[in-house]
Amino acid sequence: MFTRSDDKITSTQASIFLTDSVLGAGILTMPRAVVVAGETPDVWLSVLLGGLIVMVLIVVMVKLSQQFPEKTVFQYAGIVIGKVPAFILCWLLIIFFITIAGFEVRVLAEVTLFFLLEGTPMWATMIPFIWVSGYLLFGGLNATVRLFQLILPVSLFVLIVSYLLSIRIFEVDNLLPVLGDGLLPVFKGLKATVLIFAGFEVVMFLVAHMQHPEKAIKAMIAGISVPLAIYFFTIIFVIGGMSIDAILRSTWPTIDLLRSFEVAGLFFERLEFPFLVIWMMQLFCNFTCYFFGASLGISQLLRIKFRPVIFAMMPIIYLASVIPQDINDLFALGDIIGWSGIILFCLIPLPLSIIWLIRRKGLRQDA
Amino acid sequence: MRRLSYLIGMMLLCSLLLTGCWSSKEIEERSVYVGMAVDLANKTTAEKQLESQGGGTQVQPLITATIQIVPLKSVGRGQQQAESGSIKKYLNVSETGNSIFEIMRNYSLKRDRAVIGHHLKVFVISTELAEKIELHKLLDFLLRDNDIRPSSMVFLSRGKAMDTLESDEPDEIPAFRIRDMVRNKFRNNKIYKEVILTNLDGYFHAKQSFILQNIAAADTGEIEFTGAGIIKGSTNKWIGDLDQENLSAISWIQGDSSGGLLKTVNDRNSIITYEILSGESKIIPKVDGERLSFHVDIKTEGRLIETWDAEETASKAFFLKEAEQKFEQKLETMLQNLMKKMQTEYKVEVAGFGDRLRITHPKVWKKVKDDWDDIFSRATVSFDISLKITDYGSSTE
After folding, report:
1. How confident is the model at residue B19 (pLDDT cuts 50, 70, 90)?
2. Does residue B261 share a domain with residue B152?
3. What is the pTM of this model?
4. What Pfam family is a match, any one (chain A) (predicted)?
5. Bridge-based pairing state of the strands B30-40 and B63-70
6. Would B57 be classed as within a structural domain?
7. Would residue A5 count as lying in a domain?
């Protein structure tokens, strides 16, 4: 077998890992979250702006990680701010990853039960998911990313085809007027659009696994550009096809867009089924990213082997996924995840970078 | 060895899940309904009989919902085949209650196969009911349900809505007939564009007035598209009808006339008919302080397709000029009739003027949108029609 002893990944693979860690359940509810915040058809601008902001954050994280070759945030945080504070911050990050992982599994289960497998118990859709993901992680990062490489093109293809077929209900008038209320609503929309990129924190351990960490900035920007482009298309097609008024009354706007038309003559008459089935694979990849992140963090922090940690994580993630009692809890959790993503950025890479800069300058003066 | 044991363990675990489809349901054991019609409650004799024996719901009934189930049980195979030509392909069942979902579930008390809504295509509401109950209440279940797709089309019916789901033609499924008739818009602009559940979601949220295609039904099982019913945004109830010619005028204003005709009489009292080949329009809102006005520019090209005038030759330029003028006058009258209905009779705006204003003057729109219907009824609207007959078919003399 081709299991590499060092388990490094190429730049393209790193980009795909980042893409997969951002692109998940968010796409199903994103249009509503963004329209609620902005309340104009201009929110596609907010998506672009939000993406740019996230890119800046990513550059900060990459720069920081590049200072410590071969080391993940769980290892270098201690070097910068000392063992005890680093221990606490890293645990926050791990809990964040576990929460996202649980959230993704739960959204997957909710959507599946509502639209596809009515009557199947929830655990029966979630547990196999967690098992298979755990099995995949046994193969290490390389095997995992190689699966991502296989799935991503397929899921993007199905997504784009579904959107393009929605052209028949697309009305440009729904997207007009551009900037009718000025720029203020666009900035209001920002608070929702930065959140939809939650999960980009994986950068802090991803760079350490790259064969060529010096190319990390390019790879990570490429990796975040794909979800940015996909989110942009999503918001354009969903607003264009449904109008913002209809989006506000819809729980899963992206699916409702696909449910609003039928294509006669094609192999599939209803696009939501192929879309959901394929997107489930995407959710699987997305979930695996966080599973990996959380397991890696615990194994490096507590200095135990990676594989036993994976076993231990399975029930924990399952428990995390059943915490939300109802669909409102779930959406609230989604918001909390978005915000904690931003808070974590302010807590970890930002102070770490500043402290590191100060300390390095200090050292130089001594020398 | 350890790797192998992991693998075997995982595979064994997976085999637990490969025992077949968990929540599969055989489609033969379901009743698929493709059309639904809601009327003001009027209990059928069968329902009255069942009720006297303790069936039905006890609350004051309001709505009778009729669903159209296809295909009917394929009873036996051999012996029925001979007469299958005359057997109806569908079955309409009615049930009365005051919650649509309750009604749907009550079908399970009456029928052996549970009804499923995955294939609902048309939803017909009688105007009698839409006048009494807000539309968003009637449609809430349909919009919320996970089986029913938001691509279902919504119609109104002047008479009993359940009658529109009847047909005398043996092989025809009435719900599909209605759905397919909407596609005839390219032949006749008296058909309104399809309105699906998703559109209604938007209208409800914006509290906007809108129209829905009206269907009339005859006892013989024939139906006809007869203009449109108006749903007032502020009350969400039916307030009146537009006739076929009004609807055609709306298509003209919206630039949605890719087919259809204009018919009028010329000075010699002969019928002349114009076939629309293209119809474009531009609504230009003008805001002057508090005063609102609209200018509609309509450009159309078409063919002189029928003339009963034997004295003149259709190919002559002056004849065509005269015909063009007559058609323009006819169109102008149609448009004015529509404006009168919208502005004075019903005081609603359903032709898309508001949407145009929203795009060109977003700030003004914000101020007026809450009582747009009222404000529009005081706005002045002018029309500019340029109609061109580009050819006269294959006859000249």
Report:
1. low
2. no
3. 0.84
4. Spore_permease
5. antiparallel
6. yes
7. no
- Touching check for B18 and chain A: CB below 8 Å? no
Chain A contact for B202 (CB, 8 A cutoff) = yes
Please judge whether A256 and B150 are an interchain contact, meaning their C-beta atoms are less than 8 angstroms apart: yes
Domain finish residue from B227, B242, B257? B242
Q: Output the domain CATH number for residue B346.
A: 3.30.300.210
Which of A260, A269, A327 is the mutation pick for testing B, counting most B CBs within 10 A?
Answer: A260
Range of lowest pLDDT (B215-219, B309-313, B327-331): B309-313
Is B143 touching A (CB cutoff 8 A)? Answer: yes
For testing the chain A interface, which of B359, B361, B368 should be mutated: the one with the most A CBs within 10 Å?
B359
pLDDT above 60 for B77: no
For the segment A42-75, what is each residue's pLDDT rounded down to a tens digit?
Answer: 888 999 999 999 999 899 889 888 888 888 888 8
Of B199, B219, B242, the residue at which a domain comes to its end is: B242
Shortest Cα–Cα distance, B70 to chain A (Å): 18
In which residue are the tokens 């697309």 written? A170
pLDDT mean over A354-358: 84
| Domain with B187 in it | 29-73+87-242
Is the dihedral angle over the CA atoms A96, A101, A107, A110 positive or is it negative? negative
Q: What is the pLDDT of residue A3?
A: 45
Neighbours of A334 (CB within 10 A): 24
Determine, yes or no, domain membership for A6.
no
**Residue A47 contacts residue A231 (beta carbons within 8 Å):** yes
- Give the CATH number for residue A280: 1.20.1740.10
DSSP of A322-359, one letter per residue?
H---SHHHHHHHHHHHHHHHHHHHHHTHHHHHHHHHHH
